[in-house]
Amino acid sequence: xxxxxxxxxxxxxxxxxxxxxxxxxxxxxxxxxxxxxxxxxxxxxxxxxxxxxxxxxxxxxxxxxxxxxxxxxxxxxxxxxxxxxxxxxxxxxxxxxxxxxxxxxxxxxxxxxxxxxxxxxxxxxxxxxxxxxxxxxxxxxxxxxxxxxxxxxxxxxxxxxxxxxxxxxxxxxxxxxxxxxxxxxxxxxxxxxxxxxxxxxxxxxxxxxxxxxxxxxxxxxxxxxxxxxxxxxxxxxxxxxxxxxxxxxxxxxxxxxxxxxxxxxxxxxxxxxxxxxxxxxxxxxxxxxxxxxxxxxxxxxxxxxxxxxxxxxxxxxxxxxxxxxxxxxxxxxxxxxxxxxxxxxxxxxxxxxxxxx
Length: 357
Ligand SMILES: [Fe+2]
Ligand SMILES: [Fe+2]
Prior knowledge:
Shape: globular
Structural class: mainly alpha
Strand content: 5-15%
Order of helices and strands: HHHHHHHHHHHEEE
CATH class: Mainly Alpha
GO molecular function: metal ion binding; stearoyl-[ACP] desaturase activity; stearoyl-CoA 9-desaturase activity
CATH topology: Ribonucleotide Reductase, subunit A
Cofactor: Fe(2+); Fe cation
Binding site for Fe cation 2: 110, 163, 196, 199
Largest sheet: 3 strands, antiparallel
Protein name: Acyl-[acyl-carrier-protein] desaturase
Subcellular location: Plastid, Chloroplast
Mean pLDDT: 77
CATH superfamily: Ribonucleotide Reductase, subunit A
Helix content: 40-55%
Strand order of the largest sheet: 1-2-3
Bound molecules: fe (ii) ion
């Protein structure tokens, strides 16, 4: 790993000309072929027919606006991802459809998370805001490719997992902050965790409904999504120094138990049970294969997870450029959808934290 005293930032190659700070690193996806519109067009009708159901069953999981006391900021990447999805996109930018209404309100809620954390960070006075703001610019420019294929089945399975993952990791961070005496941070993370729980409930209900309407298509999508893995938008994260920055952060998150491979497998088991995947009947032969794959996956991943835990225990302490290459542990903690909280530990003392979008 190479690192320097003055970190530089990098973005995707197409933006290379925008700044002298941009280095040679590119963010080309490991998956070279980008599949688009993988849902058969006739299935768009399914999502149209769910309009009223979404209004009555999903929109109820939004929080009334008055309950928020903080302002908003832009959240372009994730909303773009949803609005390129077939059957649910916001056709006008202000569409009254239930899907679009949900997406805009959900984005607003997530945006407030980012904004709250950003303000907290600013007021803490512990970080270089200029560097943080630069990083936000580059991350948004890089975009993200999580192989969604404009496919709402893939999207809603992914978002169910992500919301549950953030619910768990926010809860863990609240506990950590509490242990280290930062009551405000603990409270912030606790409130955000409860928001993530509502989001998880909403997305999980949508997938449950899809299993009811189209069990075969949904189980195929579930298997497909798991084969593609539930990767994080932060995969494209780069600090201009460490080519494996995201891997290093993930290893530390593992080690300190904020979000681990075990949580990933637990979540998989949770959803297999929640969506009654084992009990699905009347599937095609492909559907049955997908069902077997999904139902047997947790057990296979458990073995990998044990190996990963061993590897993590042996991993060396890694200096991170964000904190001037000091030899400390850093916990990365993902706040949905593209905001990261870093907790910096010297031995077992929390010495600082910062947020990165
Ligand atoms: Fe959320
Ligand atoms: Fe969030």
